[in-house]
Design a protein that fits this description.
- This is Membrane protein.
- The protein has about 290 residues and is an all-alpha fold.
- It has one domain (about 10-180, about 190-270).
- The chain is built from 12 helices and no strands.
- Helix 1 (about 10-15) packs antiparallel against helix 9 (about 195-220) and helix 5 packs parallel to helix 12 (about 250-270).
- The protein is globular and about 45 Å long.
- About 50% of the residues are buried.
Length: about 290
């Protein structure tokens, strides 16, 4: 899961070099829908969507349309590695959303503060003074909040929907919503094979397969633990960005990531419950 969601930032950066962000987002969700709808139909799981139309439409908007657009447009202004690092704050946001059900301990509040400081370090030192960079970082953080909301929503409203049907439904909703806008954003010039290949990989691996795995993970481990895959996402994103796109690796990048990871670990760590020692009743035998 972490690898599948660590590579899209590189692929997005490659694709938007020659394709518009709207085309990239529409293309990846349309490819995913074209693959998943026949699979769900063959499995006979599409009928389960009849009683879950509201959750499917809601997830299509808050887990796909909104975040995908924000991330893709955000990457026009910031690096792919910084994008992956900012999204790592997701477990902290999930912990905040789960406060009523899972109250934070003292260390959890410390973790929350550390995570936010890590974001401040990344934004303040990496894009300080760059208005477009700040805009891009803001888009990524808003997308991360939508991801956190969707992660919690899946467990509460759609945990009983088969993952294949759920992803087929949400990607279909996203495709329908984006189609009118994508019609006005088609490429007007030649597009290299590398950009098309990046788009296909985004649709197949980073959307279809990744969402299938993530929804199944939420059902088995819960939203808090499922969100922890973002611990490793940034590592993949940074390594690929530095190695392939020659993006800079600054001290602020390492420091911000360390603070965010520490904050995520503390804010999602559950206190260890020590079972009481059994009380053994002894009776003294009569002499």
């Amino acid at each position: 899961m972490a690898v599948l969601w660590g590579i899209p930032y590189l692929l997005i950066k490659i694709a938007i070099d020659e394709l518009s962000p709207m085309t990239v987002v529409f293309g990846r969700v349309a490819i995913a829908a074209l693959v998943l709808v026949p699979i769900a139909a063959a499995q006979g799981t599409l009928t389960s969507l009849r009683h879950h139309l509201v959750p499917v439409v809601t997830l299509g908007l808050i887990h796909i349309v909104g975040p995908f657009l924000l991330i893709t447009y955000g990457e026009v202004h910031i690096s792919s590695s910084l994008t992956g690092l900012l999204i790592a704050i997701e477990p902290v946001l999930i912990a905040l959303l789960m406060l009523r059900r899972e109250p934070l301990t003292r260390s959890g509040w410390v973790g929350l503060a550390l995570g936010l400081v890590g974001v401040a370090v990344l934004v303040g030192l990496d894009v300080s003074g760059d208005r477009l960079g700040l805009l891009g970082a803001g888009m990524i953080l808003l997308a991360t909040l939508l991801y956190a909301l969707a992660t919690v929503y899946v467990q509460r409203r759609a945990s009983d929907v088969p993952p294949t049907a759920l992803v087929a439904g949400t990607t279909t909703v996203a495709t329908i919503v984006l189609a009118p806008f994508a019609a006005f954003a088609l490429p007007t010039g030649p597009v290299s094979g590398g950009s098309w290949a990046a788009l296909v990989a985004l649709g197949l691996l980073c959307t279809a397969v990744a969402l299938l795995a993530f929804y199944r993970l939420i059902g088995e481990a819960g939203p808090s633990k499922a969100g922890l895959v973002t611990y490793a996402n940034p590592v993949v994103a940074v390594l690929l960005g530095v190695a392939i796109l020659d993006e800079p690796l600054r001290v602020s990048t390492v420091l911000g990531f360390a603070l965010i990871v520490a904050g995520c670990w503390l804010s999602t760590r559950r206190p260890t419950v020590v079972a009481p020692e059994p009380v053994v009743e002894c009776t003294m035998a009569a002499r």
